[in-house]
Amino acid sequence: MSAIRIPSREVELELLASVSRPRGGFPVLAGVDEVGRGAIAGPVSVGIALVGPMTTDEFPSGLRDSKMLSPARRVELAPLCRKWTLGLEVGHAQARDIDDYGIVVALRMAAADALSKLAERGMAPDAVLLDGTHNWWKEDSLFDSPPILPQLSVTMKRKADAACAVVAAASVAAKVERDALMVAADAEYPGYGWAANKGYGTRKHSQGLARLGASPLHRTSWRLPGLKEKA
Questions:
Q1: What span, in angstroms and rounded, lies between the C-alpha atoms of 43 and 45?
Q2: CB of 43 within 8 A of CB of 110?
Q3: How high is the pLDDT of residue 144?
Q4: 47 φ, ψ to 5°?
Q5: In the chain, which residue ranges form alpha helices assigned H by DSSP?
Q6: Mean pLDDT lowest among 53-67, 82-96, 167-181
Q7: Nearest 5°: phi and psi at 31?
Q8: What are the tens digits of pLDDT across the range 125-155?
Q9: Cβ neighbours of residue 25 under 8 Å, at least 6 residues apart?
Q10: C-alpha angle 46/49/55, rounded to 5°?
Q11: Assigned fold of 10-183
Q12: How many CB atoms lie within 10 A of CB 52?
């Protein structure tokens, strides 16, 4: 069994040293991660955590990629991540946004929601460290919707949520907030097992779809398992 990777600040500190800030002051880097992209119900959520060169190196003890942590440990770490960073917010795009605009634009909408919450606190990033290999932050073509996000310098890093503390912090906060939304939604729309599966495709979720049909929180433009079984 491979060892669980401990994140560091190496990549983000290198990026901060290379970022120029025309308006003066110290540079601010956004660590960005998404949660719920592959779910079939509920929002897609994006966490944005801000750090600067003077942010303490002592990030929360035990911080890891959210997928490597128990639900209880994520809940414990989320407020510590907010305390460690300059600012940390989570934004959401709803199932109807995914149906109307597609998952990539919905990711941008969720990130824009998080940025607006940071802006209310007078905070904005100068550059972005984004988990993964697909730069969904960037507008892809002339056929995209009007620009949603500030077109900043974006650095991609595969498994950044495991390697980089700032992205791990964004990952944990986004996972905790989205999970809480799905637990609350399970009480409103019972029968799909969302408190356990958080909107992802499981046998119980598929059985609920076969029995109840799609709810207002399902991504109906997607191929939903179980619907074909409903008479």
A1: 6
A2: yes
A3: 54
A4: -95, 135
A5: 10-18, 71-84, 95-101, 103-119, 160-163, 165-188, 194-197, 203-212
A6: 53-67
A7: -90, 130
A8: 999 999 999 999 987 654 555 568 998 999 9
A9: none
A10: 170
A11: Nucleotidyltransferase; domain 5 (3.30.420)
A12: 18
In this structure, the dihedral spanned by the alpha carbons of residues 24, 151, 109 and 195, taken in order and rounded to 10 degrees, is -70
What is the residue extent of each domain of the chain? 10-183
Question: How far apart (Å, rounded) are the C-alpha atoms in residues 78 and 198?
Answer: 18
In contact, 186 and 192? CB cutoff 8 Å: yes
215's tokens: 């709810």
Read off the pLDDT of each residue in 22-29 and give the average, rounded to a whole number.
81
Longest pairwise C-alpha distance within the chain: 64
Q: How far apart are CA 165 and CA 183, in angstroms?
A: 27
- Among all chains, which residue has been given the structure tokens 């398992």? 225
Has residue 57 got a pLDDT over 70?
yes
**pTM for the full predicted model:** 0.93
| Lookup: tokens for 50 | 């801000």
